[in-house]
């Protein structure tokens, strides 16, 4: 019994990680407080209260993890990856409820989970938050924090739990994973600097596109985190190509491997950037997808050639990056264009990006594995090696990618069936399920379901679970399930 108790509480690195995240959340809540003071708003207490609670909880967690003398184990990493999102979401929902903008706590929790997981699926529009200036900023900042949390997890915890899944294949980066706290903190800090630098660059682009500074800040926060929204008012009311161009560039940046961008910047070498195989495949998909959608739209007479190219490439970049912005009523487009965008959210961006989806490098490895199997079938004695960028992909990584691909598609199919119980059509159910799992909520809008204000509580909770499941790369959840079943079996 004593041994079991020790195994539960000796989680120093888990507590330390949770404490640091809670402290970051507490500090982030002070930003809308400062904004509210600047605009003389009276609801700043709605951010101060959760900020104090976050700092207090963070301090308690850090105290429990004050002696991180060993390395992170798989159990701790999986526990952190699963629980960090609900903790962030609970703190994130408090301003919605305390300001009275969302009075229903479960709906506020759903809204917060959607923001933290950078899904963009919502029961509201940005105009619903416009009454409180600081709440608009908090909504965008919550999306940005969710993207930051994912990148930090990707560079510190995820490789220990579920393997790199190709993380080191495409970047050849200077960030190397280590389960020791000091090395994890160093990698997290470098990941933060890259993410923040890209956000500042996006902010400048939005300023050059003609947005006011506050709108440019919110645009950069939401776009670089690959959050987006299916709210058509954000772009269709402007109908400005410079704004769409700035957003398109930001969405492409959000879907790139930030470690590759950092390495290319250090070397001042664009060739190093363009020689990356995953980058080449991503750009090819973007160009081909945008051109095919433009041709399809022009063929059906919806737009002229120039407008078709403009909308086609914007939507292709949006859904491939899982940002999910829409600049045109794509739910009224021909089936081919909508289906292509639907497929794009499953592919997602490059490995290491804040976006969702399965990621380009994994599809590339699966394709080369299939070709290798064909060659091996034709020539049984031939030794076939799967390579990416001249590096051999270990069989262990290939096996993990296969497992991930199977689990992802299986959960997508099962969740579509569950969502269909709410009365949605087949394609609408698949759109909602895909949007939750790939962090691209506007996928539901492709089939006429852009808002979940009507959804019953059980569906909102189930979608929130799917959004977290998609963000933790699935494996962490199954690691916890396996640990739980094993512990239950031992106790019985």
Explain how this protein is built.
With 492 residues, the chain is an all-alpha fold. Helix content is 69%, strand content 1%. It has a two-stranded antiparallel ribbon with strand order 1-2. Helix 4 (74-98) packs across helix 5 (105-116). The longest helix is centred in the middle third of the chain and has 28 residues, at 181-208.
Question: In summary, what is this structure?
Answer:
This protein has 492 residues and is mostly helical. The chain has helices spanning 2-9, 12-38, 45-64, 74-98, 105-116, 133-156, 158-162, 167-170, 181-208, 213-224, 233-236, 241-254, 258-267, 270-274, 277-299, 305-320, 335-347, 360-378, 395-420, 426-438, 457-471, 475-491; strands at 387-388, 391-392.
Annotation, overall tally of beta strands: 2
Terminal CA distance reads 13 Å
Main beta sheet: 2 strands, antiparallel
- Uncertain residue segments: 1-8, 164-176
Give the helix proportion (percent range): 55-70%
The fraction of residues assigned to DSSP E strands is: under 5%
Strand order of the largest sheet: 1-2
Radius of gyration: 22 Å
Number of alpha- plus pi-helical segments: 22
Shape: globular
The assembly state of the depicted protein chains is: single chain
From N to C, what is the helix and strand string?
HHHHHHHHHHHHHHHHHHEEHHHH
User: Mean of residue pLDDT?
Assistant: 84
Structural class: mainly alpha
Topology summary:
Elements: H1 2-9, H2 12-38, H3 45-64, H4 74-98, H5 105-116, H6 133-156, H7 158-162, H8 167-170, H9 181-208, H10 213-224, H11 233-236, H12 241-254, H13 258-267, H14 270-274, H15 277-299, H16 305-320, H17 335-347, H18 360-378, E1 387-388, E2 391-392, H19 395-420, H20 426-438, H21 457-471, H22 475-491
Antiparallel strand pairs: 1-2
Helix pairs in contact: 2-3, 2-4, 2-6, 3-4, 4-5, 4-6, 4-22, 5-6, 5-21, 6-9, 6-10, 9-10, 9-12, 9-13, 10-12, 12-16, 15-16, 15-17, 16-17, 19-20, 20-21
